[in-house]
Write a structure and sequence with these properties.
about 90 residues; mainly beta; three-stranded antiparallel beta sheet; elongated
């Protein structure tokens, strides 16, 4: 008589938080705009947040799409002086 139970492998799937990172912030000297460049998972969306001081909370600025090569760029034209930026998944 055949058994309904068989021997096989079991695997544990452990989710990994995908990386998102700002790689550079560059000022355009002719306009004063900031270009925020980064890397993330291709074809996703990244939320950019900003704060004028690290003693204050970050506030949402906008979202940007990540290209097929895993890079994103945001041009901040607000001209609000020195700012700190953070990137995360929405």
């Amino acid at each position: 008589m055949a058994s309904a139970i068989s021997v096989g492998w079991t695997s544990k799937i452990v989710p990994v938080t995908p990386d998102v990172s700002i790689t550079s912030v560059i000022v355009d000297p002719s306009t004063g705009d900031f270009a925020i460049n980064g890397i993330a998972v291709p074809f996703t969306t990244v939320r950019i947040e900003a704060t004028p001081s690290l003693t204050q909370a970050f506030s949402p600025l906008t979202t940007v799409p990540v290209g097929s090569d895993g890079t994103f760029t945001l041009r901040d034209t607000s001209h609000l002086g020195m700012r700190f930026y953070d990137a995360k998944y929405p």
